[in-house]
Amino acid sequence: MTIDVIPFGHRKFLVQLFKVANIPDRIQFGRYYEAVCEIVSADGRTTLEECVAHRPSDRLNVVGGRTTDWLVLLVKTDLALSQFSGIDIRVVQYRSEVSEQQAALDYQCVP
Prior knowledge:
This protein has one helix at 100-106, and strands spanning 2-9, 12-18, 32-40, 46-54, 70-76, 88-98. The protein has one helix and six strands. It is mainly beta.
């Protein structure tokens, strides 16, 4: 799995996960879900964080097929950006669907 981490506020991160195996069928493209993310740091410490998982739609790979193994996570955590080096992150529980507006409000992504 490939991980791309983008900070967007104090202790808030947008985490892109590529080549994700085992995304449940009920997680639909273009939808947002409350979730629990497990973060394992480079030194082996594990934390569970509330997050929002989004399965983007309409992204095509180099041969024109839909990218089906891509997740975007919104994560609030006490970790600093420097601590994301060498982490492993995965969704351990998908919860209920939320609207894009609710996800943006919860993570203060709107002005």
